Amino acid sequence: EVQLLESGGRLVQPGGSLRLSCAASGFIFSNYAMSWVRQAPGKGLEWVSVINGGGEETYYEDSVKGRFSLSRDNAKNTLYLQMNGLRAEDTAVYYCAKGRLWSPLQDDVFDIWGHGTMVSVSS
Amino acid sequence: SSELTQDPAVSVALGQTVRITCQGNSLRIYSASWYQQKPGQAPVLVIYGKNSRPSGIPDRFSGSTSGTTASLTITGAQAEDEADYYCNSRDGSGKRFFGGGTKLTVL
Questions:
Q1: Which among B42, B97, B100 is the nearest to A95, CB-wise?
Q2: Which of B42, B96, B101 lies nearest to residue A108, judging by beta carbons?
Q3: Which of A3, A49, A109, A112 should be substituted to probe chain B, the one whose Cβ sees the most B Cβ atoms within 10 Å?
Q4: What per-residue confidence (pLDDT) applies to A107?
Q5: What mean pLDDT is predicted for residues A21-34?
């Protein structure tokens, strides 16, 4: 069964750092682009970042560029999101989502989603 | 422009047909994909590409695009279709973006 399991979310103070992880199983992890999508409480979905299958190519939403860093360890089937300089507006459920192709420039579909991990930024 | 615009709320009588729309300039070039999200749950892909459904998605869900408007149509809406629906697309730089979402009520 294809599965994505996020972890690492917690309460953190403004300006703090956090690393989210997404453990993948049931598919060949290195063959697919992977993304993070977030949802603030009571709000809509917001795409955060995407990485290609090999891990060399990343893209970011403008509000997180320079603060967040996306990486992957294909040997461990795990996706990471390093979040620095956290702000109150980063408070959200963060979902890990699988792409359908290796390159994020060829496709933008998220075909499998994890259940999410909650990040709260507050003093 | 990277904006996708959706109506905030739509309602449909049980068993009737409803169309949920998504408007944006990127849709002239890139297909929209559609996601269903029920309260407290993760989103689920329901339509992608020109009009493709993942396995397990009922055939009452269909998609289409005309110009800058993509549509998700539910033919014969069921009570379990009540949910939030989001469209998604991308631009040529690798970035993706979602519409604001449409809350579907089945009466």
A1: B42
A2: B96
A3: A109
A4: 86
A5: 97
pLDDT digits (tens, 9 = 90+) for B25-84: 999 999 999 999 999 999 999 999 989 999 999 999 999 999 999 999 999 999 999 999
Best CA proximity match to B72, nearest among B42, B91, B49, B106: B49
CA distance B22 to B1: 14
For A44, which of B92, B96, B98 is closest by C-beta distance?
B98
Enumerate the β-bridge partners of residue B72. B20, B63
**Nearest CA of chain B to the CA of A23: how many Å?**
16
Is residue A13 a contact partner of residue A121, using CB atoms and an 8 Å limit? yes
Cα–Cα distance measured from residue A62 to residue A65, given in angstroms and rounded to the nearest whole number: 5
For residues A67-74, average pLDDT: 98
Closest CA to A43 of B27, B101, B76: B101
Binary contact (A111, B54; C-beta < 8 A): yes
Chain A residues near residue B8 by CB distance under 8 angstroms: none
Q: For chain A, where are the E strands, in sequence order?
A: 3-7, 11-12, 18-25, 34-39, 45-51, 58-60, 68-73, 78-83, 92-99, 110-113, 117-121
For residue B101, which amino acid is it?
A: G
